[in-house]
Automatic annotation (TrEMBL):
SUPFAM superfamilies: Heme oxygenase-like. The keyword Heme applies. It holds the Pfam family Heme_oxygenase. Residues 1-24 are annotated as: Disordered. Keywords: Heme, Iron, Metal-binding. InterPro entries: Haem_Oase, Haem_Oase-like, Haem_Oase-like_multi-hlx. This is Biliverdin-producing heme oxygenase. The lineage of its organism: Bacteria, Bacillati, Actinomycetota, Actinomycetes, Micrococcales. CDD domains: HemeO (cd19165). Coiled coil: none annotated. It comes from Leucobacter allii. It comes from the Bacteria.
Length: 224
């Protein structure tokens, strides 16, 4: 097995999980959204899943924000829950909370994050944090542009992808990678491997969420 200490840890994480990234990116439900053939309802269903993911993730991330050693990962401008709530209200209406539910994979994903948070496994929290937020700051920015154009959304409905509070996304991503490098240097080899495994697990959950969303959509179409 390749040693994780030979390169900057941010590079190890990216390279060691890029095949999982490709699986997530290539999931049909996601691909349809990127190709502009997903419906407005598909997008709404995705935003609803984000709500349940970030509810767990941002609760866990309080542990990162509370410690100077990891606070750089979670500045105030990264927080997504208020934007998600505003997007859901704009897309669904005031009663959005009663009208959304997690698909099974989202429930499992949130449960895994809560389990790690309860253990206080900081590297595990960082693994989940990295997988979601760096994605939102990367491919997520492309998704937002596609969805906005296709469904005629302006700020309302896509606030989740607006990270203006962080400054330029590229600068923040570079700072985030530097924080990953510094954090990785504090871990031993087995812990770095364990964290990489958790990133791969996080991608697996995201892919499973797309699969479940696809199944739910097919079931709804069959019932109509
Ligand atoms: C259609 C869907 C997607 C597209 C087109 C896409 C595209 C991209 C691109 C182009 C990058 C590289 C950006 C850069 O290096 O600055 C990237 C990075 C990333 N994406 Fe995605 N992505 C998609 C879905 C996802 C999903 C579902 C996740 C996980 C939830 C994800 C997580 C990440 C992460 C963590 C990175 C940062 C990797 C690193 O540099 O360490 N992406 N994505």
């Amino acid at each position: 097995m390749e040693e994780t200490g030979e390169k900057p840890f941010s590079v190890t994480l990216r390279e060691g999980s890029w095949s999982d990234h490709s699986d997530s990116e290539g999931a049909t439900f996601m691909e349809d959204i990127m190709r502009g053939i997903g419906s407005r309802q598909d997008y709404i269903d995705l935003v609803a899943q984000h709500y349940f993911m970030y509810e767990a993730l941002e609760e866990a991330a309080m542990q990162l924000a509370a410690d100077p050693a990891t606070a750089a990962f979670h500045p105030a401008g990264i927080v997504r829950m208020p934007a998600l709530e505003a997007d859901l209200a704009a897309l669904i209406g005031a009663d959005w909370r009663e009208r959304i539910a997690p698909v099974p994979a989202t429930a499992d994903y949130a449960a895994r994050i809560r389990e790690i948070a309860a253990e206080g496994w900081i590297a595990g929290i960082v693994a989940h944090h990295y997988t979601r937020y760096l994605g939102d700051l990367s491919g997520g920015q492309m998704i937002a542009k596609r969805v906005a154009r296709q469904h005629g959304l302006s700020a309302e409905g896509i606030a989740f992808y607006d990270f203006a509070g962080l400054g330029a996304p590229t600068d923040f991503k570079n700072a985030y990678r530097a924080a990953l490098d510094a954090f990785g240097a504090t871990l031993d080899e087995s812990e770095r491997q364990r964290m990489l495994d958790e990133v791969r697990t996080a991608y697996g959950f995201n892919t499973a969420v797309f699969v479940d969303l696809g199944k739910a959509k097919a079931a709804k179409a069959a019932a109509a």
